[in-house]
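[Solved] Which block belongs to which protein?

Original post:
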Amino acid sequence: MNRPQNNRAWLGVLPVLLIVAFSAVIPLMTVVNYSVQDIFDVNTRLFVGFDWYRETLRDPRFLDALLRQLGFSALVLAIELPLGILVARAIPREGRWVGLILVLLAIPLLIPWNVVGTIWQLFARPDIGLFGQLVNGLGIEFNYTAEPLHAWVTLIMMDVWHWTSLVALLAFSGLTAIPAACYQAAVMDGAGSWQVFRHVELPRLTAVLVIAVLLRLMDSFMIYTEPFVLTGGGPGNSTTFLSQYLTSMAVGQFDLGPAAAFSVLYFLAVLLLCWLFYTSVIASDGERG
């Protein structure tokens, strides 16, 4: 017998929808409106259609910043995902030390982004920084403010230190949800450590790893504060990512029309990357199933 559906639960969701509409949809529509206009002042505007979009896509500085952004996101994901899984597998599943380990692991996630940039700015300084002096003591002339490669190495290390804990905590939550019987069956079948990970743990970690990758992909693609504090986008423009270029355009130059078009393209790029990753994972899961 079919039970009548009770839709009163939507009344509880309605305030959330209204907040999201006010804080996300309305500002987005405002930006879209600005992106098709040339704004001279508050009362003087000229409709230009898609001119700002075409200009942005032809701008070599935008394309360079986009390539740097894609490279940065790919590097941090390639490091943080396997490293987070390794850390999660090394954490004991039970015992009195588990809680303490998880708390210590979560400490980097509690540090504000601007403080993270300041910490690594001091830590990597070649004159007084512990890391900078250590590397220079090995005979390597390390200076992240003058060498683009050194700046990139410092940025990658900073992001890995800050966000690997998120992947590790998510992976640990997925590992603890695996029944002990699965491990017992694998041991009885003579499976080694790699086979246990490949056939027992990894398939059951897919859901949490998708969440981890999506979170890190979105956050790394929108990174701003840490590289701004650490390198200021330099040396030169070697660490100027999309968010910094957008800020300089909107705030520094006050080009609201081009900045709005840039923002829309930026949003669509993040949305497209996340959609491509999610659909590819779902498709691969369907083929395995």
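(Second protein starts here: sequence line, then its structure tokens.)
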Amino acid sequence: MIDALQFEFMRHALLAGLLASIICGIMGTLVVVNRIVFLSGGIAHAAYGGIGLALYFGWPYLAGTLGFSLASALVMAAVSMRVKHRADTIIGVIWALGMALGIILIDLSPGYNVDLMSYLFGSILTVPGSDLLIMAGLGVLIILAAFYYYKDLLALSYDEEFAQIRGVPVKGLYIGMIALLAVTIVMVIQVVGLILVIALLTIPPFIMEKYARSLAQMMIGAILLGALFTLGGLWFSYRYNVSSGAAIIMVAGLAFLLTLLIERLRRLIDKKAVFF
């Protein structure tokens, strides 16, 4: 694959994948420990409405998708805080409406000739340099936010009542986290696509959750795993000429299944050791 790096689009793809690994490693860890995977899925699928708006009105992709995703995410965050017992239902409705709006607007778009596969399954090989700069800026912002608010995020993630007692602005911090999550999802959609973005957000942190001893270790481990999955997926994509986004998630999924198998075997061995 080293010879492929002579091409600019491959260098962009590699950099986009590594930046996505950093962004998803940190934000994905917060998604997993706060148990908001379903909310993340709602934001990701509602983002399709933003894609439809951008295409229909001729707006730049980021402007339409990011604006719509942020609005949807803030509504979902407010709902999940105020009516927790009905949050999953309302998030599901917003999820469906966003998808439906996007499909209708795309159908009505004048001169419709867009390749929807690039939105559904990603197009990491066509990420422009301008978007790489935005991803790099987002990565720096997320790293700084995670470092500055680390103790507050730790308290929020594991004991919300304790966080409130400590004076942590729980509502503001939660809304800020969801807003950053929306921006993350919009950017990573370009790498692995709408359908696969949640997998990249959740698989590396889920694997690391079993081995990390702290939230920081979980974030760092998730970043490293994400980078490994990205490199492996890009190599597989280049070697066998398949979709890069799907290849990245396939590598991550196989690693996920392997860890489950290892965990299962370890439990069986422990049970036999206790029995004998």
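Accepted answer:
You had them paired correctly. Confirming on the second one: The mean pLDDT is 87.
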